[in-house]
């Protein structure tokens, strides 16, 4: 038998015991020693080694590994004697001397049984580790797939950004070229107009000079010829001498803003899909009203709010203090179905069961803003750029749909950010398959500067859903609630929806005392049960300037206290 040294030369293998004989014939499987014929006998005659398994290398080139644990060569912990037992009370190996001295009344077990139990336990542990390894391998594989998907999505977004950049560049270049062409045409027309004027003035100057010459010769002429001179001079026309030489048309260039917001509105925006799936809510303020429910709530600056109520067949909209001077400042006797603020902080109210939207000015004067006759107005929403979204339906049963039903969103574009110049030529009623989008569009909000339009669609008196469209009115996704809390006994109905400053969608689920938090892609980020922190029956929502979420609640029938308004902070 030979082996290689570090230099690569062959070295003859010798017996591991005598280290002289090179005739290696055996291997002790317990000691892992190679033996010659003589040392095999010596090895067998050693009492502690007599039971070792010795393999004949010539008869078995590949000796099987002995997987059976030998019990006869395990010494005790103290006397190093063999043929031990296991003390289960002390969990140590003990020999006969140990047993007679300290372990007489202890629970003893044979090594075979102890080892079998421990081997069985280790096998189970091995199986668990194997499962964990498989699970980790799967997680690693899933992570690799997720990494590829993530990178592909980023590459896709980058490609779309590049395409949009090229599209905008082309559009800008085309528009600039058109403006330059228009400018060249206007320059040509202007120059032509000026040349005509100049020619006319020259002609008039020549005529006037001719008159002067005639008048100069008049002094040297006989007085009888004065009448002839007068006739000659007066025959020359003098009209147009005082003609205005200023051009009647002036060209100006109306330059649009290239601010980050303007460019972003054209270019588009991104929202993050991978977000934390937890939502903590901290109550900052709690106010108790004299009402039984808060139908609508809009907060301007964190100090005042407009609140609408309807109870005992009496409706009102009240302006209220939200500070320590909590109370009503102004009350309007109107029944509001929905409310919204304009950019000028004017309050808009859609009047219940009518076609009319009223505007409440800063000094609380009511005036009609919009009439959608013969339809009935439902939801109203004003975007940051002044665009105006209105949910409408025909008169009659709000949830019964017929072929003649009209349930849609009207979009009024504001050219100057003010509602005084509202014009509507866009509406959303059907999807691309000509199926109805809505049953009763009762709440609306937007995110990403109007790129995503979220509609709270009420299907019945106790059930609803979110219908989400893109800027073109195409259906993006539908949200029917969280199956973990919504059921047939407690259906999902979006009593109110708002967009957070971070671009999330917050939904009031009154039936389940919950808030649902979604992102623009329709993923449920979190669902928080508000009754865990003492808030029940959330019905109306509003974010204020400082980022606080205001929640207007209803009360239980048996509750004699007033409905509460909360200011909370969301931590996502």
TrEMBL record:
Boundaries of every B box-type domain copy: 10-57, 71-111
Keyword terms of this UniProt record: Coiled coil, Metal-binding, Zinc, Zinc-finger
Keyword check for Zinc: yes
Coiled coil, from the record: 108-189
Sample GO molecular function, one term: zinc ion binding
Domain of life: Eukaryota
Keyword Metal-binding among UniProt keywords: yes
PROSITE patterns per the UniProt record, alphabetical: ZF_BBOX (PS50119)
Name of the molecule in the record: B box-type domain-containing protein
